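Hey team,

Filing this mostly as a record. A colleague (T.K.) asked me to run one chain through the structure pipeline before their review meeting, and I want the input and output archived in the tracker in case anyone asks later how it was produced. No errors, nothing strange. Just documentation.

Input sequence:
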Amino acid sequence: MLMELLIASHNPGKVDEFKYLLKDLDIDVYSLLDYPDLPEIEETGTSFEANARLKAEGISRLTQKMVLADDSGLMVDALNGQPGVYSARYAGPEKSDAANNAKLLAELAGKPKEERTAHFVTCLVVASPHKESLVVEGQVSGYILEEALGEGGFGYDPLFYYPPLDKSFGQLSASEKNQVSHRSRALQALVPQLKAWLVE
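Output structure:
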C-alpha cells in the first residue's frame, strides 16, 4: 500500500522542494494546501526543533496521518544567531520577504565580509500517531551579500552567498539548490532513518 506523507506547509516553493527530494521513496506527498480547513498551528517554540515538533505532532493528531514538518531559518553570527526562529517574520508578522531582506541588510550595514558569516538551518520532524517522532537537522554555511543577487529561490536566498558554487542561493537552479541546501542535507539524513523508522 502506498504510504501518504503530509508536508506541514502552505509554501508552494517549499512543498515542491520536498516533493523533489522525496521522489525516490514510495510515498504519496500532500501538503496543507490540500487541507485548507485545518487550523493554523502557532509556532511558539524558541528552537527550530520545538517549532517543527509543534507543527508535525499537532497536525498528525488532527489528521491521524504521517506528517513531516520543518522549521528553517537563517542564523547570522554577527547578530547572535538572529533572525533564527523568527526568520519568516523578522520585519513583522506579515512575513514579507522584501521587508525581511531590507531589515537584514540594514542590520549588517557597514560590516565587512568576514563579519557577515551566516548559516541556513533546517530541522525536520516526522510524526505519526502512536510513534515517537523522528528528528534530523541540516545546515549550510555562507555569508550575507551587500545586495540581492538572483531571482530564484525564496526568503533570504538572494542575499545568501554560497562560496563553493560562487553564487547566491537566488542564482542557483532548482537542481543546484536541491543538491546543497540545508533542507536537502536534512532530507539526505532523514531518508535512511525514515526507512528504518517506518518499520519500527
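Quick notes for T.K.: The mean pLDDT is 92. DSSP finds five helices and seven strands in the chain.
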